[in-house]
Amino acid sequence: MKHLLVRSIASLALGLACATPALSQQAFPSSPINLVVPYPAGGGADAFARLVGKRVGEKLNQPVLIHNRAGASGNIGALSVVRSKPDGYTLFFGTGVALSVNPHLFKDLAFDPQKDFEPIVHAAFLPSYLVVNPSVPANTVSELVTYLKSQNGKMNYASAGNGTPSHLGSELFKRSAKVDMAHIPYKGGAPALTDLMAGRVSMMFAYMSEVQAFLDSGQLRAIGITTRERSPLAPQMPTLHETGLKGYELIGFYGILAPKGTPKARIDVLNRAFNEALSDPDIRVRLSAIGVDLRGGRPEALTQLMRTESQKWGAIIREAGITND
């Protein structure tokens, strides 16, 4: 009887041990999810995070709380997540700049995006337009390239600052088109676009959401889009790739990530919830209207995107000698 009792207790203990992972998985999440956005409230990334986060919270039956931790081009927010507990309750709203550009701009970066995060989902692409002041005598990319070559480096372009997508995209354009231009960096996209409309600078790469109102009013003219294939967001707009700059592509992106070591079972739960939110028809309509191309899929897609974008922009940064100051 004693041996039978011991075997029964051992069997019960083994059964509980085997059941623990399943029980813990079923219990996740049992409290709110914290999503760190490394930019100020009110911007495009913040609006995206709040809209999609709300729907994810409904899927998980737990609220998704947005925490804006801006500074250092996204590095402050990223580092706060890297140092958090890897339990699936603290996530990072990553951008292409924070995940694939900053490691090449900041020599003392205290983390490695490809080693210190667990990707959850590639949330969206952010295409850009190549826009010019209406005074520029070019309606197509090929006409612009011809005009630039006739100017012998006298023409200038605006950017939102050193190392930003508008800067890197222009440097890639210079190399692809074999032209020379002067870089005029600004402290943000808004003042750059203001001077572009005033004619103080001639051209700029800018996100669709930033410039659509100015295109509609005739204050700026778009002559190309930076996706490799024509975008469903603007199917009438030719790509730089198809108009002669073979292989040209400049696309910002959003991704959701967790700290390294977060259990795979929890990554899977979060991946399903975000994919369901990103496929919601209402969200797709609302975000497509402001130039956001929603994605989704398995975590591996974000892993690969981070790697290829890092290699691409790292080479441009080195060749052009770009720094973050």
TrEMBL record:
Highest taxon of the lineage: Bacteria
Signal peptide residue numbers: 1-24
Q: Which SUPFAM superfamilies match?
A: Periplasmic binding protein-like II
Gene3D superfamilies in the cross-refs: Bordetella uptake gene, domain 1, Periplasmic binding protein-like II
CDD domains according to UniProt: PBP2_Bug27 (cd13578)
Q: Which UniProt keywords apply?
A: Receptor, Signal
Sequence similarity? Belongs to the UPF0065 (bug) family.
In Swiss-Prot or TrEMBL terms, this protein is called: Tripartite-type tricarboxylate transporter receptor subunit TctC
User: Organism source for this protein?
Assistant: Ottowia thiooxydans
